[in-house]
Design brief:
Two copies of one chain form a homodimer.
Chain A lengths: L1 H27 L8 H13 L14 E4 L13 H13 L12 H5 L3 H6 L1 H13 L4 H14 L15 H12 L3 E9 H12 L6 E13 L2 E12 L5 H10 L5 E4 L5 H8 L7 E6 L20 H9 L2 E4 H4 L10
Parallel strand pairs in A: 1-2, 1-5, 2-3, 5-6, 6-7
Antiparallel strand pairs in A: 3-4
Amino acid sequence: MRHVLYRGVIPWLVCITFAAATSSFAQNLLPSWNDGEAKKAITSFVTTVTDASSPDYVPPSERIAVFDNDGTLWTERPVYFQLLFAIDRVKELADKHPEWQTQQPFKAVLENDMETLAGSGEKGLMELLMASHAYMTTEEFTQIVKKWLSSATHPTLHRPYTELVFQPMLELLNYLRANGFKTFIVSGGGIEFMRPWTEKVYGIPPEQVVGSSIVTKFELQDGKPVLVREPKINFIDDKDGKPICINQYIGRRPIFAFGNSDGDLQMLQWTTLNQTSKRFAGIVHHTDGDREFAYDKDSHIGRLDKALAEGAAHGWTVVDMKKDWKVIYPFELQ
Amino acid sequence: MRHVLYRGVIPWLVCITFAAATSSFAQNLLPSWNDGEAKKAITSFVTTVTDASSPDYVPPSERIAVFDNDGTLWTERPVYFQLLFAIDRVKELADKHPEWQTQQPFKAVLENDMETLAGSGEKGLMELLMASHAYMTTEEFTQIVKKWLSSATHPTLHRPYTELVFQPMLELLNYLRANGFKTFIVSGGGIEFMRPWTEKVYGIPPEQVVGSSIVTKFELQDGKPVLVREPKINFIDDKDGKPICINQYIGRRPIFAFGNSDGDLQMLQWTTLNQTSKRFAGIVHHTDGDREFAYDKDSHIGRLDKALAEGAAHGWTVVDMKKDWKVIYPFELQ
């Protein structure tokens, strides 16, 4: 009898312990989020779609979550970090390009004349991007990005860029993965600028990173197959481009999406509007000028205007960084 | 003392049992492969790269395996199944297009005049593809493909197309996944033609399917976000296009690749040539005219010529379907 009891009790004890651990685990995965509407909306959604007895249950294979990167997972001010990379890269290459001393927008970059650079418009910016992002193999570019990230620091926060990721969002990514979600980045940033570091920093592997891209060309160089990066845009993964890329790269409609600007509007629409099953859309609202940067509808970088208005109409969750987040960056916990 | 012994022995027993199970598990995962050079090359490669004590060990995150689809995972004769889909689709739509009665290549399709259709060249084929693959939303197209697959049968084998997949390759996909590999399709076929069924048939989810694509356009139709398929090629994932797509979609160089035709040559080169770590390239050689189809260098569909010659020079593994495979299709096991 004792043996029977023993055999019967052990599995129960294991189950109870495991269930308790799972539940507190979930709660503990969002320690940097203050208790409030945003955290509640997230945990309520995740609890519902992972509850096998709920009519809103979603099987694990369909738990696709997409995140914008700039301004959603890491800081994007004073300008997108990738633009700062392009500027540093042009300065590094200047010796080999004496013509840049007199040619815009390169002259402006070399003279740290940001006003003239901004005034060079889309054409100037594109020239800057191509000069810094093309004319090498994909593997060479990866090494260039890694080297830059290992030494460059933010102009005002004086930290390496990969330390300027949002601690609460790292926790959210882990929380979703612990609940069977597959997490993707869907960013206007360069796909090959992100892939070298997203696995280490966010736990998101290269094959789950979607972004803007330039054209590449296959070549055998001395018998070694390489892809050469050409100075030509392949696709811009922003605005309308986001749902297009989600469909092209992922091939499933996400059930969970997070962005922070009007560039994410169509991705949030694609995820949530007029769908037959439960969906979640979140917006990071940059409200904390003390700990990070405060901006929305009047900002050139990460403008948030239409998406905020539409979010209010559709019940999307708006995260108030100042109120909802205990800390902004991981180093604040040290 | 007995308790100490007990506590010490149990974990060992568990470990030994598990190790034995794992080993025989691996062997049992390739039951339709005859013992021969091909099977040996596959198991030897997998055993080596998954052995943590080997200098050729590869961590799980880098175990990327890519497979061509037509002729590698399923049959591609008498013509690519997607072309048969296009033909059936045009016939279904003919009532709404009276002009097709006199307009090529549609007239040829409606009259089952395959010679004239073949003679219409790339331009004719493209018109046929666009008429059958565009002018609807991505979700409508998915439903059309699913409906076709549920009723259409192969012209000579008289089986649904999804039954004409290669049993030994299904086993190989499982074997690789059981060894921590992530399996991808990289096919010249349409990405949205494959995604509706690859998870069920191959265990490969939509987000791990790479293929040729057409342009899509984001629209809000009565408040519902849709992607409309436009009659314009986005990218052809064949030949040079395969390494380009592997880099674009997956972002890592595979360590294992399988193809069957010259369209896979660059993918096999990209995977194996002049790499610093151990790689595997395999070619399915269609040698079995009795059980499937026999063809190679003189075939218009799935021509295998250059890749076979280059494979011999580089030590790629060539699978002789007649000699290496006990069965071709899953239904032979029933």
